[in-house]
Structures are given as structure tokens and as C-alpha cells.
Design brief:
The protein has 2 domains: 235 residues, no CATH class; 103 residues, Rossmann fold, CATH 3.40.50. It has 17 helices and 4 strands. A 4-stranded mixed beta sheet has the order 2-1-3-4. Strand 1, helix 4 and strand 2 form a beta-alpha-beta unit. Helix 1 packs across helix 12 and helix 13 packs antiparallel against helix 16. The longest helix has 30 residues. The radius of gyration is 27 Å and the shape is elongated.
């Protein structure tokens, strides 16, 4: 009961105009400004790059293999390179690593095409040409049937094509992208007030009264965490719903899963604030937290998309909590990326447990708060 009393006291901070401006008004205004100013960045023309497609033949049908070889020769004359894969090559992994714009598996059950979401234009062209080949082969197979009604109607003709696309037709607009980026960024900034949760009690000289009351340190700590968690969750939900219903921001078909990722990020941000406030003395904790947020925002795609970042910077970007949170939400909305969502939530919660445990242990060993 004491935990909820302390938590309720923290939630009442939402009545403070500064809290409303910081957690609700600021992200909404930033989303509108960036979404409007940078619209052309997301809707501009694109240059078509090299169209290299990897394929692997697993079919025992000689006619299908012959037809594919003829198609590969013809495609090479039209600017699309079809390269055979070795038996041990993982074609999907090659596509995921941006080495190819697509991967085709040719088996007895048909053709399976996997497109690269990082090269939507090139992948779309390749998919169109491969679909045209599959339709022609399907027609030729149907023409071999003596029942001409089947040829005309298409009923009971062999289904040689099963398409699986790794990219979706819908792409985020500037407003859609910055709605995600700014919500996750403002959540990370909540680490700064979280660092003041206990130190503010020391500054107001209220720690003595708290410790003299019939409340344990654990209840004080838990109440502070729960209250600020609920406060940030409420404000985040308000911002997301305003973006969705007032600005027509697209949040996908799995909004609940998006909220789960955001909630775990809130827990992580609070744990950063509390953890560093106990492990680093004085005002240095706030400076370190601010540096972490700024570097994470730059590498995590808060100011501009970083999907094409490669090399050392691309490797470093993977350690940004904003990068894995933004990527997870984008995958949920535009690619049904359940794996990315689970990965982000596990990273957020795992690091949160470590930081909160460290803060709780240090707090318990101190004489005061």
C-alpha cells in the first residue's frame, strides 16, 4: 500500500505544466516540424542501383531448370544479374546483409522470392521480372493439359509460384518516421528526471522524514520507479494516440506490440537515470546521461534514417538503445518483425534489471537514501 501511495504522488506530477510540456507538447511539436520540413527527403526520386539476384535450384524438374537458365541469360541482357548460390550459402542471410536485392529458391513446389527491404526499387523490379517468368511457365505447364477448359479458366492448373516478400509496399512518410523517432527519443530523455528521483529528496531535506516514517527503503524505491513508469506510460500513450487520430500517423496493425516495446524502453530509461545517479556522484551523472542520449540519438536514427549506415559506424549504431527500439517498431509496423520486437524488449529489460539492481544494492548499503 505504501508503494502505491508514493507512486500516486509521482503520477500527480502530470498536473505540472513543465511535465506536460516536456512529455507531451515537445514531442508533438517536434514531430510536426520535422515531418513537414523533411517530407521531400522521404518522397524524393530514387536512382536504380545494380540488380543482383541470388538463386538456388533445388528442383528435380529438368524443364523448370532449363527454362530458368534461359530466363537468366535473357535477364542478364536486360540489366539484371542472376547468380547461382553454393549449396552451403544462406541466400536469405545474403539478402539481409545487403549483398543482393533478392533471393530465389527454385524447388518442385515452385518459386519462392525473398526481397531486400533496403533496396525496394531494385527488389521490386527483380520481383516483377521473376513473376513474369513464373506466369509464363505456369501458362506453358497448363497448355500441356489436354483439357482446354482448364487452360482457359486456369482452374486446377499447377500452382508454381509462392511469393514471400521481405519488404512491404507501404513505406513510412516523414511524419510516420519522426513520430516513432521522437517518441522513443523523448522516452530516453526521461532518464534525466529519473536521475533526480532520490537526489531531489536529498536536496529538499525530506529524506530524514521519509526514513523516519513506517516505510522501508525498498518501498520508497519501488514507489518512485512505479510512479514514474506509469507517468511516462500515460504521456506516451497520449502522444501516440494524438499522432494517430489527429495527424493520421500510421502505427500499423499491431499497436499493442508497439506499446510493449515503448514500455520496455521507458523502464530502461528510468533504470539508466536511477543507476547512474547512484554509481556516479554529483552532477556528473546528468552529464553522462545526456552524452549517452545524444550519441544514441545520432546513431539510433532519431534525426535521420540510418538504415544504410555501414562499416564501423554501422557496427557502433547497433549498440544504441534508440537504434534497436526504432528498428523494432519499424519492423512491427512495416514488416511484421516479431523477432526485432522480442530482441529489443529483451535488451531493454535485461539492461534495466542490471541497472536497477545495482541502484537498489547501493541504496540499501547507504545509511540514508
Amino acid at each position: 500500500m505504501n508503494v502505491w501511495r508514493i507512486a500516486l504522488k509521482e503520477i500527480k506530477a502530470i498536473r505540472d505544466i513543465k511535465t506536460i510540456v516536456f512529455l507531451i507538447v515537445t514531442p508533438i511539436l517536434t514531430i510536426l516540424i520535422l515531418g513537414s520540413v523533411l517530407t521531400n527527403t522521404f518522397n524524393g526520386s530514387k536512382t536504380v542501383g545494380d540488380i543482383r539476384v541470388l538463386y538456388k535450384i533445388k528442383s528435380s524438374e529438368s524443364e523448370l531448370a532449363k527454362s530458368w537458365d534461359a530466363f537468366a541469360d535473357q535477364a542478364g541482357k536486360n540489366g539484371m544479374v542472376l547468380e547461382p548460390a553454393n549449396e552451403n550459402t544462406d541466400g536469405k542471410l545474403e539478402v539481409a546483409n545487403n549483398r543482393y536485392v533478392g533471393y530465389v529458391e527454385i524447388s518442385d513446389s515452385g518459386l519462392n522470392y525473398y526481397g531486400n527491404s533496403s533496396s525496394p526499387v531494385e527488389s521490386g523490379i527483380a520481383q516483377g521480372m521473376i513473376t513474369a517468368f513464373a506466369n509464363r511457365y505456369k501458362l506453358a505447364a497448363a497448355a500441356g493439359n489436354s483439357d482446354q477448359a482448364v487452360l482457359l479458366s486456369g482452374n486446377r492448373s499447377p500452382d508454381f509460384v509462392r511469393e514471400t516478400s521481405l519488404d512491404t509496399a507501404r513505406q513510412p512518410r516523414a511524419l510516420d518516421y519522426y513520430a516513432i523517432a521522437m517518441v522513443t527519443l523523448i522516452i530516453m530523455y526521461s532518464a534525466l528526471p529519473a536521475a533526480e528521483l532520490i537526489s531531489s529528496e536529498r536536496k529538499r531535506n525530506t529524506t530524514v522524514r521519509l526514513l523516519a516514517s513506517p516505510i522501508t527503503k525498498a518501498e520508497i524505491f519501488a514507489g518512485k520507479v512505479v510512479g514514474n513508469l506509469l507517468l511516462n506510460v500515460i504521456c506516451t500513450i497520449i502522444v501516440v494516440l494524438i499522432c494517430k487520430y489527429m495527424f493520421n500517423v500510421y502505427w500499423g496493425e499491431h499497436l499493442g506490440l508497439v506499446f510493449l516495446v515503448l514500455i520496455t524502453e521507458i523502464v530502461f530509461a528510468l533504470s539508466i537515470g536511477l543507476g547512474f545517479s547512484y554509481t556516479i556522484k554529483g552532477k556528473a551523472a546528468g552529464s553522462v546521461i545526456m552524452m549517452i542520449i545524444q550519441v544514441g540519438a545520432f546513431l539510433g536514427g532519431s534525426y535521420f534514417p540510418v538504415t544504410e549506415m555501414t562499416g564501423v559506424m554501422g557496427t557502433i549504431a547497433q549498440f544504441s538503445p534508440l537504434e534497436w527500439s526504432n528498428t523494432a517498431i519499424l519492423q512491427i509496423i512495416y514488416g511484421d518483425g516479431w523477432y526485432a520486437a522480442v530482441k529489443a524488449m529483451l535488451l531493454n529489460l535485461g539492461l534495466s534489471v542490471f541497472l536497477l539492481s545495482a541502484a537498489a544494492i547501493i541504496m540499501r548499503r547507504r545509511e540514508g537514501l
